[in-house]
Amino acid sequence: MKEIIFFTGKGGVGKTTLSLISALKRAREGKKVLLISIDPAHSLSDILNEAKVTVPNSMDILEIDILKETRKYIRNALENIRKFIGSETFKKVKETVESLAEAPGTEDAVLIDFLSRLVVEKGDKYSYLIIDTAPSGHTLRFLRDISSAGSLLELISKEAKNIEHLKNLSGTLKGNVEISNILRERSERIRNLDTVIKKGNTYFFVIMNPDYPSFMETKRLIENLERLNLKIGAVVINKIMPSNIPEEYRGNQEEIINRAERELGRFKIIKVLFIRDMGFLFEKVNI
Question: Given strand 232-240, what is the order of strands in its sheet?
Fold first, then answer.
């Protein structure tokens, strides 16, 4: 993967539209692009249908069906568990594991596993991976979980390896070796994803609207991204009302834009006018 770009920000600021525009721009330049939505409430298809935009052959779009992927994730976990325990024990374990589908954090775990596989398996196929994210709070939790999941799996893998050593003379060694291999592979894959996001050509485009709540959340989001040692590619001020629009509709946007330029000027700032015509917006915006 030559470059990964996350579009992130407060809900409703236009992440999906701008990530789609960015992907189309690169695909029209002949680059191989994968645009993926990790927002459970994805709307890429809706926007494409509304705009009637032709997607180039060099661009693929993937909207993750998180419920379907969660079921698949749990099914694979149960298939691995079934190999090593008896049928009665498996019934009890199956009930517990299936109940995890509704547990907090399960969706993030599934997304992390999905993305880590995608980067490993598709990394050489695309020049750009562009990711449309959920609102900022969910995205920050997801990013923190990537790092902690890799570390936790590495620790569990080491413990499994110690158990292998202790059971070296027992008849259960083969099963333990397989479990250890599964854990090690997953740990390495997730730690690779963490490394790619933190140290590779991965950038976060932070989207905001020219209003006070959006600006303040953007500042907090940037602080948190920098705390995680992540690179900001640009701050995008979206939905700016043109100057010929009456002042009562524009509100205090000029004040917010000026403040953003003063306080966030260390980053590249991209300004995008509010345009209702989706087709026209796709043609005019360069991001």
Answer: 59-63, 33-37, 128-132, 3-9, 202-208, 232-240, 269-273
Given a cut of 50, whether residue 164 has pLDDT beyond it is: no
**What was the pLDDT predicted at 203?**
97
User: Quick one: tokens of 247?
Assistant: 């002042």
Pull the structure tokens for residue 173: 């060694």
CATH numeric code, 3-284: 3.40.50.300
Query: Could you report the per-residue pLDDT of 227-279, keeping only the tens digit for each?
Result: 999 999 999 999 999 888 887 778 899 999 999 999 999 999 999 999 877 77
Nearest Cα neighbor of 280 from 100, 51, 116 is 51
For the stretch 41-61, pLDDT in tens is: 778 888 888 877 888 999 999
DSSP the chain: --EEEEEEESTTSSHHHHHHHHHHHHHHTT--EEEEE--TT--HHHHHHHHTPPPPTTEEEEE--HHHHHHHHHHHHHHHHHTTS-HHHHHHHHHHHHHGGGSTTHHHHHHHHHHHHHHHHHTTT-SEEEEEPPPHHHHHHHHHHHHHHHHHHHHHHHHHHHHHHHTTTSTTHHHHHHHHHHHHHHHHHHHHHHHHHHHSSEEEEEEE-SSHHHHHHHHHHHHHHHHTT--EEEEEEEEEPPTTS-HHHHTTHHHHHHHHHHHSTTS-EEEEE--S-HHHHHHH---
